[in-house]
Amino acid sequence: MDAVDQRIIALLVNDARASYAEIGAKVSLSAPAVKRRVDRLRSSGVIKGFTTVIEPAAVGWTTEAFVELFCTGRTTPAQITVATRRHPEVVGAYTVSGQADALVHLRAADIGHLEQALERLRAEPFVTSTRSMVVLSRLVETPTPVPAPS
């Protein structure tokens, strides 16, 4: 991956709907050359896909929390992955260092919905306890940064 690839990625992160011609104009390449690079970045796994980013408040999901999961001794990351994917309120799940086994990011319509989601999460057979932190406000949220050219 060279500096041009990194610029293409940065432009796509900023606007995934930008045309190859628009990107090409900004990186001094033709649209077909940009397409070839994007295809190569996709086939090599650098670009995993394109997605639509939704503003949670616009669809009524204004309540969010981070939940530490404490699990039974032999719970694997794969088990946590499978279980958390069953819950539509889960927007992220991570294994972490420290006392908790995993950290789960939930979004819900309101506190009642959040409580229901937490109860369903707590009902997973490997979860022994949870500790929750409700988000008061989102201060910074950025897309994945593009590495600086070497």
TrEMBL record:
GO terms for molecular function: sequence-specific DNA binding. It comes from the Bacteria. It holds the Pfam family AsnC_trans_reg. The keyword Transmembrane helix does not apply. Residues 1-62 form the HTH asnC-type domain. GO terms for biological process: response to amino acid. InterPro entries: AsnC-type_HTH_dom, Dimeric_a/b-barrel, Tscrpt_reg_AsnC-like, Tscrpt_reg_AsnC/Lrp_C, WH-like_DNA-bd_sf, WH_DNA-bd_sf. Keywords: DNA-binding, Transcription, Transcription regulation. Gene3D superfamilies: 3.30.70.920, Winged helix-like DNA-binding domain superfamily/Winged helix DNA-binding domain. GO terms for cellular component: cytosol. PANTHER family: LEUCINE-RESPONSIVE REGULATORY PROTEIN, TRANSCRIPTIONAL REGULATORY PROTEIN (PROBABLY ASNC-FAMILY)-RELATED. This is AsnC family transcriptional regulator. The lineage of its organism: Bacteria, Bacillati, Actinomycetota, Actinomycetes, Micromonosporales.
